[in-house]
Amino acid sequence: MNTNTYTAVYQAPIGTMVIISNGDAIIEIDHINHEEPITENPDKLCEQATKQLDEYFSGSRTAFDLPLSSKGTPFQEAAWLALQTIPYGETISYGEQAKRMENPKAVRAVGGANGKNPFSIVIPCHRVIGANGTLTGYTGGMSRKEWLLDFEKQNSEK
């Protein structure tokens, strides 16, 4: 197993993101909400993620095909797996996600797990909304969540 990490900075239409690889898989894709400089040393996986994000933001990609490696609890891993079943351009509630995980009372825990999702956009936690249809919680910020949902809705209607 590779013990190095490789980093790329990605300029998305919704702000700067960081992509981190361990050489075998992508281990993080996240929004950057600080001004600290990041030293870039991308590998082929970071470049592959950059290419797929470019395709996503151009409207030509609706699903990602990247090797991902996460380190979550079994519950978090189950929540992140459930997120990947939400079709592009659609949304579900936290309650619906909990039901899909066969744990309908775990609505708050689902929200917490989604907040720890290490793969922004690629694992689409932005597609989960409040039961009443309102936008709630997104570690990338509510304006980014709203932008992503609007972007996907517009592209799915084409």
TrEMBL record:
Organism of this sequence: Vibrio gallaecicus
Catalytic activity: a 4-O-methyl-thymidine in DNA + L-cysteinyl-[protein] = a thymidine in DNA + S-methyl-L-cysteinyl-[protein]; a 6-O-methyl-2'-deoxyguanosine in DNA + L-cysteinyl-[protein] = S-methyl-L-cysteinyl-[protein] + a 2'-deoxyguanosine in DNA
Domain (Methylguanine DNA methyltransferase ribonuclease-like): residue spans on this chain: 6-69
Any GO MF annotation of the entry: methylated-DNA-[protein]-cysteine S-methyltransferase activity
UniProt protein name: Methylated-DNA--protein-cysteine methyltransferase
EC assignment: 2.1.1.63
Keywords: Cytoplasm, DNA damage, DNA repair, Methyltransferase, Transferase
Subcellular location: Cytoplasm
Active site: C125 (nucleophile)
